[in-house]
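MOLECULE: protein
FOLLOWS: sequence and fold
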Amino acid sequence: MPLLISNDVTARVLAMKDAIAVMDSAFRQYADGLATFQTRTDMWSPSARDGDYYRWGSLIGAIADPPTLAFRFKSDILTWKEYNGAVTEEWHCVEPGRYCGFILLIDTANGELIGMLNDGIIQHVRVGATTGVGVRYLARRDASVVGMLGSGGMARSYLEAICLERPIRECRVFSPTPANRERFAAAMTAELGITVRPVASREAALEGADIAALCTDSRVPIFTSNMVGLLRPGALIVNVRHDEIDAETYDACDRVVITSNNKLNDFVLGTPEQRNRRPMDKHYRRRYVDTVFEELPPIVAGKAPGRKNDGELIFFHNISAGIQFAAVGRLVYEKARERRLGTPLPIDWFLQDIRN
């Protein structure tokens, strides 16, 4: 019987340490040919009444253990604003403050739809857990200082995951709005038991950091190659979206490791004038699009080397992969079922006697 699982239920059953464990397993399976996913697909239309563009985004991924396929989709109205030298991206569904992101979970042992899940918490945790896996294999063992750019949900998820994998004693956080960074610092100090300090510039956050975590919604680079020298030798840089890094940063690093070399499928409706409303076609994107990097799954599976020495400067390019939703979605489903949480739905709603 399928379960309808809300964000409230997910918050009760999902722990970051468990999410990191299932993500590690999913990447091992991917390296062994036992997991797969389709390239992320975004479809755009200039038809939005109260925004710059409408976007449909979807990801599909499957793992063999447990036998699971996940289809995650989003329905967004996007707007872009310039703020303190950055181009920020905002989105909503129907009205500001409301969002539509959903996961359909399939048991591939018999094809049954077993779960329908809001993606809000899973979205943050699956990306944070992937960062945790990246830190496990790519950060120096003695990494203890995090330089955080951004103070939203992704920043919270990243810092929690990083602290589970390395002995972090301090995080310095910068975001353009002082109240946001101060709120983040107070909350994460209390939650994680480490020193989290709000600072007034990107440079102050990054100076001497062992791990630079870029967790913003900027559509222009907020980390540029001249900032590499601020970091401690042998640092790890990890992002949320590829726009946050300029093209030269790729070349300034000793290694670039990516979740997967599968690239985004972008389908865009609109006249040239309408398409120009999207701040997407910049030179720093082409370095990402045109290059094949080392992938994380073979490193996780022991088929390729992780960090080779303490002096390596590594950029971990954390991008979306559908297996993240299969792994973490199935974890949430099993824990919700064990605790008799979620809303059961009749399986007959999703079956028919007409061959399709």
